[in-house]
Write a structure and sequence with these properties.
Elements lengths: L2 E5 L2 E3 L5 E8 L8 E6 L6 E6 L5 E3 L7 E6 L4 E6 L8 E7 L6 E2 L3 E5 L2
Parallel strand pairs: 2-11
Antiparallel strand pairs: 1-3, 3-8, 4-5, 4-9, 5-6, 7-8, 9-10, 9-11
């Protein structure tokens, strides 16, 4: 079955950087686009970035210029490089595989930005 496992979250100071990873198994990863979302406490899940199978990318305005989405099809992994992190970036970050009607989701990785 399709599985997505996020990693790379943690506690970071404001202005710091993190690189999140999402490892995908159970499907032909290179066939599909991938997305990152985040959900802060008490808020709805928010779109962050998308990368298509053809490597086209799109970003939410809230992270544009600070985040970079990339993928390594040989490793079946999508990445989210986040720089100049702010306290408002604190959330659980999820990846999503754009396969099928609703896609597939990972369980998320916590990112906390605090001094």
């Amino acid at each position: 079955q399709v599985q997505l496992v996020e990693s790379g979250g943690g506690l970071v100071q404001p202005g710091g950087s993190l690189r999140l990873s999402c490892a995908v198994s159970g499907t032909i990863f290179s066939y599909y686009g991938m997305e990152w979302y985040r959900q802060a406490p008490g808020k709805e899940r928010e779109f962050i970035a998308r990368i298509t199978k053809d490597l086209a990318t799109i970003y939410a305005n809230s992270v544009k210029g600070r985040c970079t989405i990339s993928r390594d099809n040989a490793k079946n992994t999508v990445y989210l490089q986040m720089n100049n992190l702010k306290p408002e970036d604190t959330a659980v970050y999820f990846c999503r595989l754009l396969q099928g009607v609703g896609g597939y989701w990972g369980r998320g990785t916590q990112v906390t930005v605090s001094s």
